[in-house]
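Consider the tokenized backbone below.
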């Protein structure tokens, strides 16, 4: 089964570093408010999710990744690829002090992948 959200090795390495510092992590895909549309990394449970959020999947290290239902409606045809680059990103996200920022890349699912995902709904 294809994953709806994955992470590059560089992103996974940074997640491991952050996990060592802060403990278990979680992500929420921002919808474009204060910090643009960045994937935001928090200590697990610090960001309160609710009925308006979807658990998109888990990243390596058992890190849950949430997205708002509205954002999911726009992105459901794509695989989200969490990556990291140098620079300062969201001021609320844990990677800021590391001089890095997470970002979301995406790719459109193939027809076969989309059929497989739709069959599981």
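A designed sequence for it:
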């Amino acid at each position: 089964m294809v994953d709806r959200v994955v992470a590059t090795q560089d992103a996974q390495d940074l997640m491991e570093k952050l996990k060592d510092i802060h403990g278990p992590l979680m992500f929420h895909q921002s919808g474009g408010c204060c910090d643009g549309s960045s994937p935001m990394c928090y200590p697990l449970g610090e960001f309160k999710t609710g009925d308006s959020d979807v658990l998109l999947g888990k990243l390596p290290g058992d890190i849950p990744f949430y997205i708002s239902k509205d954002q999911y409606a726009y992105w459901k045809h794509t695989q989200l690829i969490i990556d990291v680059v140098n620079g300062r990103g969201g001021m609320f996200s844990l990677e800021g002090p590391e001089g890095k920022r997470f970002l979301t890349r995406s790719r459109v699912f193939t027809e076969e992948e989309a059929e497989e995902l739709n069959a599981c709904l």
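The longest strand covers residues 78-86.
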